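Before a colleague's protein record goes any further, I have to sign it off. What it holds is a sequence and that sequence's fold in token form. My question to you is simply how this chain folds and whether the tokens agree. Thanks in advance; the entry in question is below:
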Amino acid sequence: MRKQNETKSGRTYGGLTQEQRKAARYKQFLEAGLEVFGTSGFRSATVRQLCRQAKLTDRYFYEAFGSLELLLIAVYKCQMDIIQERVITAITEVLPSQDIQHIADVGLTTFFTGLEDPRIAQVCMVELEGVSLDVSDLYHSYINNFADTFSSMAGLFYPSWKIADDEWKILGISLVGAMRQAATYWLLSNYAMDKKALVKATAKIFLGLIEHIDKEQATMLST
């Protein structure tokens, strides 16, 4: 018969199994990484500094991640997944309204709200630049994912638009680029601009592009 202080994952300690303790340490390092990378920056960070922030030993750091770069990747993915999920959820909830102005405002407000914490903005908008090819590939994969999401939603709203796949891709990437540059400026200006003004200005890019494409498509259909 299994002893009371054991589980399938091994012995418990402090009421937690080995796997639960590993998960807790992993989360501690994620939080420490966000704090360190988001304040002093990735390039000046050390394992000792991360461990001190996490209140854990370097043995646990190397067990969980193995390198500072892998921790940076994990922190970035964690925060970007949260932002992306919130943006998609917020847009999906207001899609039935068919009000493109409202949808743009909601999506952009959700995006910029996710970056109001300067540590998150620093990690997601700045710190990955030029770290390594693997990190650059990850960085651009998230840009592509956002771009594909916008293109898919535009296709739902404007099914009559006849636009080549390559053009859709560039349009989506350009819109994401505008969002990222606006967010980076917001961070570097120490959030000098009111968020509502930031959303209003960025929304004009989306709405202006939609209006232009709509007129272009209408002209093509009439000829």
The mean pLDDT is 89. The CA atoms of residues 158 and 214 lie 8 Å apart.
